[in-house]
Amino acid sequence: MGSVKASIAYIVLASLGDVMATIFGINLFALSGQLLVGLINGSFYALLSLGLAIIFGLLKIINFAQGAMYMLGAFFAWMALNYLGINYWWALILVPLAIGLLAILMERFLVRPIANEDHLYSLLLTFGIALVLQGVFTHVYGSSGLPYQIPAELKGGTRLPFMYLPNYRAWIIVSSLVVCFSTWWVIEKTKLGAYLRAGTENPQLMQGFGINVPLMTTLTFGFGVALAGFAGVLAAPVYSVSPDMGSNILIVVFAIVVIGGMGSIGGAILTGLMMGVVEGLTKFLYPEASTTVIFLFMVIVLLVKPAGLFGKEA
Amino acid sequence: MSTTGEKIRINDLHAYYGESHILHGIDMTIMQGELVTLLGRNGAGRSTTLKAIMNMVGRRTGMINVNGNETIGMAAHKIAHLGVGYCPEERGIFSSLNVEENLMLPPNVRSDGMSIEEIYDIFPNLAERRYSQGTRLSGGEQQMLAMARILRTGANILLLDEITEGLAPVIVQKLAEVLLMLKERGLTILLVEQNFRFAAPIADRHYVMEHGHIVEEVQQHELSEKTELLNTYLGV
After folding, report:
1. Domain extent at residue A212
2. Contact call for B75 and A205, based on CB within 8 A
3. Which residues sit opposite B64 in a β-bridge?
4. Please, what are the averages of pLDDT over each run of 10 residues along chain A (314 residues)?
5. Is residue B18 part of a domain?
6. Searching chain A, which residue's CA lies closest to the CA of residue B79?
7. Does residue B217 contact residue B207 with C-beta atoms inside 8 Å?
8. How do beta strands B20-31 and B6-17 pair?
9. Per-residue DSSP letter, A84
10. A117 shares contact with chain B (CB less than 8 Å)
11. Are the Cβ atoms of A194 and B97 closer than 8 angstroms?
């Protein structure tokens, strides 16, 4: 008797699961799968647009090289592993540091000399740097992409009620959220962040108060770019390491920065995640529109609230 | 670093913004504990003099000695650390920070700055509104905040630019009391001021500027005999 009851209960539950899985005619497995992909893309969008927002806030320059630095992050991780035997975990720390250092040199010797010129100059400079980097890497490594293994510790996955969650994908989401929100916390809640915010508003007066603003600017640029390097290492095992990975993602990230509002730190993070999810949702509902939906959003936001969803009206 | 004697000595100071030559050879000396004003019409170069001391102009030549240190070749962010507090004409309250964050923002430049309690004692309005956004304060409160901010750092040389501009008489009166209190404590103050009636009773000396030159120096006791002259310079 007992076993019959149990098997009836099992059949009922199983069919309930089936009903749930196709509730309202929607395939929940497919939906949650697309949402997960969206959230992962969103994690990268958040990291990259956060870096752009920080740099734009203090330096008032639009860093077109941010995508190239993301690409460089992935390549550095690949090179570190294949030439130096440095594993993923060390690369996750060392590569952003190396990229940050590179950015500091770039700020000091290329960006700063034209800091007082029209913003168009720094835009063209960083665009040029991006093209050079992409060209060099295409020349050396070709454009087909290099493989990078998921670290052994994060292989496998977890079965959830409606989906299978690969561990590495969960790690991307968690680590990107941790990095983004710690950065947000430092900028919005600490004394160092107060210096940054005040320096964004009135750098000259901050100098007058005894703050070394040029140094702060250089370090901020380094940190903002290092975020892209971090995103690059994180991306290496899931996207193929290829020279055009940066330029592909950068256009979307610029749209996200515009939607979130230029220079808004929290806005950049939230919009990044949100747009990733919107993209995933669109892929499920109407796949043909998934690559354009973010730009559609951008157009609507620009028409309705030109300062961006989280931007302050000028 | 001396605490008595000359706090600021300027010799043959020239300052430029790009191609325009604003200051044409300024000489002035301010002793410890003095309250000195820079009088003159708009555009005479008074604010530029303060900015030149802070190294906030495009280019400057000559000598500027602050607290015994030659600063003409010094980076802008090092000057505050000689004990200088600068309050700009536009007050420079940060809109991204609340009142207390604005107050706590500038790093200490000397060890004996006012405590936050002392500051709230002097400016009770700031205590009441400590969590308001800095730029939501009234003009008078913003001015008090801009002053309080540099008193907290321990600066003992204050460069104050038009602090009474556009404020109600009762607040101007309050600022005069604060300046006298600071003077009593031995702080050295260089005040750019348009409001001669505010400056006259509290200042020890006045420099009158015109077209980037210092054209007259008036001691406190000479005020009555030189009133006529001052009126022609200031156009009042």
Report:
1. 29-304
2. no
3. B10
4. 58 56 68 88 94 88 93 95 93 96 95 88 94 94 89 86 86 95 93 90 92 93 96 93 91 91 86 92 87 91 89 63
5. yes
6. A210
7. yes
8. antiparallel
9. I
10. no
11. yes
